[in-house]
Structures are given as C-alpha cells and as structure tokens.
Design goal:
Blueprint: E1 6-7, H1 25-30, H2 48-51, E2 56-61, E3 63-64, E4 76-77, H3 89-104, E5 115-122, H4 130-143, E6 146-156, H5 163-172, E7 176-182, H6 186-192, H7 198-210, E8 215-222, H8 229-242, E9 246-251, H9 259-263, H10 274-290, E10 294-297, E11 300-302, H11 309-315, E12 321-323, E13 328-331, E14 334-337, H12 342-353, H13 367-379, E15 385-386, H14 387-394, H15 396-405, H16 407-412, E16 415-418, H17 427-436, E17 446-449, H18 453-456, H19 458-470
Parallel strand pairs: 2-5, 2-12, 3-4, 5-6, 6-7, 7-8, 8-9
Antiparallel strand pairs: 1-14, 9-11, 10-11, 13-14, 15-17, 16-17
Helix pairs in contact: 3-4, 3-12, 4-5, 8-10, 13-19, 14-15, 15-19
Length: about 475
C-alpha cells in the first residue's frame, strides 16, 4: 500500500493566504508530527464536528497568467496573454484529472450530507471557463450532493473576466466572489508583479456590481515594498467606497523561493518596519470598523451576515475536503495533503483510483494536538474560544494552565475573558472567579484576543498557550 501523509491540521489549510502574524512556523515544524495512539485525557475526548463527514470542499485551480512576486502557492503560470483557456490542453487535462480525483474519493461515513460550501481557489480560478467549472460542480453534486443555495465562492482577478463570463458563472451557482485587488496604486501593482492594472480593478468592480453579485469581497495586501501610510489609507478608503460586503486584509510575508524573497529582507527598507506594519493593521481595523464592517477574524471584515461560510469551516475546526494539486483535506481530525508537482499529482490520482492510497479514517490523533488546533483556530476569531465546550472536550487542567500562562496578558488587555452575555470580565472579577471555582472558571464563557492589540500579538500569545499545553502530562 502507498502511504499518504496524515498529521494534525494546525495551520496547514488549503491555500491559506498570508495573514498578519499568519503562522506559528517554528512551533509547528519543531513539534513531532507523528500520530500518537492510546492517549487519554481526564475523560474521553468529544469533538463531534471533526468526526462527522465534511460539508465543505476546496477546489484548487492552479492556473495564473504569471506568478506574482510574493507568491509561493502551487500554481501553473500560463503566460501574461492568457485570458481564455477553453482549448488549452494543460487546463483540459487538469480539470479531467481533478474530476477523476473527486470521483475516486472514498466516502466512509454512515451519512453523506450534501456540501454546504464550495470554494474555488488558486491560482486564478476566473481564468477557467464556465464550462469547466460546470463539469467540476456536476461532479461534486453527483459524488456528494450540493445543498440548495450552497455558498459557492470563486477567487477572481481583475482583467480575467467580463460581464458575460460573470453572468455564466452566476448561472452555475457561483454566488460569492473574492476579488484580488491587493492595492489601489498602479505603482504597487507593478511592484508586486500583478498581471492587472488599476483600470482593470475598476472595470472588475463595475462588472460585479452590474451583474448583481450581492456577496463579494475585496482582498488587500499591506506592508508592500515602498508602501506608505498614505497609500494604505487610500486603498482602504477606496475599498470602503466600492462597498463590498466583505474585506480581507493580508500582511505581506516574505517567503523563500519567491522574487521578493531574493530581493528583500523583512523589516528593512523598502519594506515597512514591524512598527509601521502594526500601524497598517490598526488603521485597517479602525477604518473598516468605522465603516460598519465587523472584524470577525484576524484578517477578515464583513457587513453583518456576510461572513465567509467556507472560511468559518476552518475557524470552527470542522472537517473539509480539498481537491486538486497541492490541496489539503481535513477528515477525522487529520490533515491529508496532495502532491505539489503535477506529475506526482497525476500518479496520486491514478493510485487513488486503484485503491492504493490509505484512508485517514482508520488513523488516530493525539488529543493534545486536537486541543492545540481548536485553541489556535478559535483565537483567530472575534468569537474566541468557547470555554465550556473546550473544558468538556479536554478537561480542566488545560484551561487552568492557559489561565495561569495568560495572567500578564489579562492585565495588559491583550487577552480578554467574556461572560455568557459576551461582556468583558474585569481582571479583579476574573481573579475572584478563578479562586472561587478552584481554577475551573465555569462562570467564564469565552476567551478571545483584543482587537487590534491582541490580534497583533497572536503568534506570541498562541505560542505561549502551546507551551503551557505541551507541559501537561497527557
């Protein structure tokens, strides 16, 4: 049998954008990734969402016109002139391969609920023709079923679609668009190596509005080379004027192997300093909140009722399927990664069809790893960690260790406790509760990071929590 790679999910999600304080790289890579068995907590672990069948699917469409200077995603660059890919054999063959993978995927659950969210990520999915998108959605519907009015999101780049293509996508069921604007300055778009210019940005926004797309997002990147505070303020202002229902704000991360990685050193000119990057983040939080966008996740803002349902699958530690080159699934608490090279992915699909790929269903995971996953993902959200659920699943010792480790941060205001009415609990009352409950804070309902100061320290604060959990004998 050909062994597949199974490990805790941690922060290895399908095509996760580069978020501010976006990963805890050292902590994750230094931890043993092996699956440990026969572990026990104070009582059996109970995490039903992880053990249930996925109702979300991520579809990776890796094709781009060119690779942006900051990008280290798994993509296939087709050339700057590429806009229509109907007859490109590289694309046709890949879509067929992707559909083969979906069809060959084993469904080993007693129930098979229909998919509630589908997310087309890339790459630049809007380069792919509606006909090809239709074949993928038909395959998903046949294999798993698609719930009526399921959220179907697509990442789209300016200059890669017109009104005709947009309307055709909408007829197929695409009802949410994530528009990769990144910046509203021609100079910065060129410096990033983006294939579109500012004119295409405004054209794309006009197309989305004219076609009646109600649920759409603008993606922005802060801390770009030569980006000033005035530039960032202008991008935020123009974004607010465009009136999307959702905004994603990512802080540039310099990755090895990218063009930016060879040109720049983080924290050195022409990149903004860490202090300047923090000010960019605070500015986004302030301006977008003032414009009635809810800051519901570290990098995500939305009008009321327009949270990205698919991304909430990740934040709530729910299972999901991932299909396509380099994508990731999260099933029964374990991450399952596809190959990042096309030839290897082709072999993987062939082996999957031949029954030579192990299923994660029979694997196991250490409860402490699951606890860390749940904790980290929860603290990325404004809702925070549900203490009652966490205590019921993992016991009181982990919570006691976390509260002890976070004492200085409760006092500084970076970490906040909320009661059942979601009102902040003061430090004095918090200490009283902890003493009364013998370090079992039953009167405390949620633990979250403050906005924006706590979110800015998310890496450090989550690392502290990991150390506290790791010290426990489990």
């Amino acid at each position: 049998m050909i062994k597949s790679t199974f490990s805790p999910i941690f922060w290895l999600l399908p095509k996760s954008p580069k978020l501010f304080q976006h990963t805890i790289t050292n902590n994750l890579t230094n931890r043993a990734a092996g699956v440990r068995q026969n572990a026990t907590l104070e009582h059996p672990i109970r995490i039903p969402p992880v053990l249930s069948p996925p109702t979300s699917a991520y579809i990776h469409l890796p094709f781009c016109r060119k690779r942006c200077h900051y990008c280290d995603f798994t993509i296939v660059a087709l050339g700057s002139a590429s806009t229509q890919l109907d007859d490109d054999p590289r694309v046709l063959n890949y879509i067929q391969l992707l559909c083969r993978e979906i069809n060959a995927t084993k469904v080993e659950f007693d129930t098979k609920p229909p998919l509630e969210t589908v997310f087309f990520g890339g790459g630049t999915p809007s380069l792919v023709s509606p006909k090809m998108v239709s074949s993928i959605l038909e395959t998903l519907n046949t294999k798993f079923g698609l719930r009526m009015n399921a959220e179907i999101s697509m990442e789209m780049d300016p200059g890669t679609f017109d009104a005709k293509k947009m309307r055709e996508m909408m007829k197929l069921g695409v009802n949410r668009v994530s528009l990769g604007v990144q910046a509203f300055q021609e100079k910065l778009l060129r410096a990033c190596g983006r294939a579109h210019g500012l004119m295409e940005v405004y054209e794309a926004i006009d197309i989305i509005k004219t076609c009646g797309v109600e649920n759409w997002s603008i993606d922005l990147i802060s801390s770009l080379p030569h980006q000033t505070s005035d530039m960032w303020e202008e991008s935020l202002r123009l974004t607010i004027e465009a009136q999307p229902t959702h905004v994603s704000v990512y802080d540039l991360q310099i990755e090895q192997g990218t063009k930016f990685g060879t040109l720049y050193t983080p924290g050195e000119f022409p990149l903004p300093s860490e202090t300047e990057s923090a000010e960019f983040y605070k500015m986004a939080s302030s301006m977008l909140s003032s414009a009635t966008y809810n800051h519901y996740e570290i990098s995500s803002y939305c009008k009321t009722g327009y949270e990205c349902k698919h991304n909430y699958t990740y934040w709530k530690h729910k299972p999901f399927y991932g299909f396509g080159l380099g994508s990731t699934s999260f099933v029964v608490g374990l991450r399952f990664s596809r190959p990042r090279k096309m030839n290897d992915y082709m072999n993987f699909v062939q082996n999957l069809e031949n029954g030579l790929v192990n299923s994660p269903v029979n694997a196991s995971i250490h409860p402490k790893d699951t606890a860390m996953d749940v904790f980290m993902l929860s603290l990325r959200t404004a809702r925070g960690l549900d203490l009652k659920s966490f205590r019921e699943s993992f016991g009181t010792s982990i919570i006691s260790s976390l509260f002890e480790a976070y004492k200085p941060y409760f006092e500084s205001g970076h970490v906040v406790c909320l009661n059942e009415e979601r009102r902040a609990v003061g430090t004095e009352d918090l200490n009283t509760y902890l003493l009364e409950e013998n370090h079992t804070p039953a009167k405390l309902a949620y633990l979250r990071l403050s906005d924006p100061e706590g979110f800015l320290l998310s890496n450090e604060l989550i690392s502290i929590a990991f150390k506290a959990m790791d010290s426990l004998e489990i």
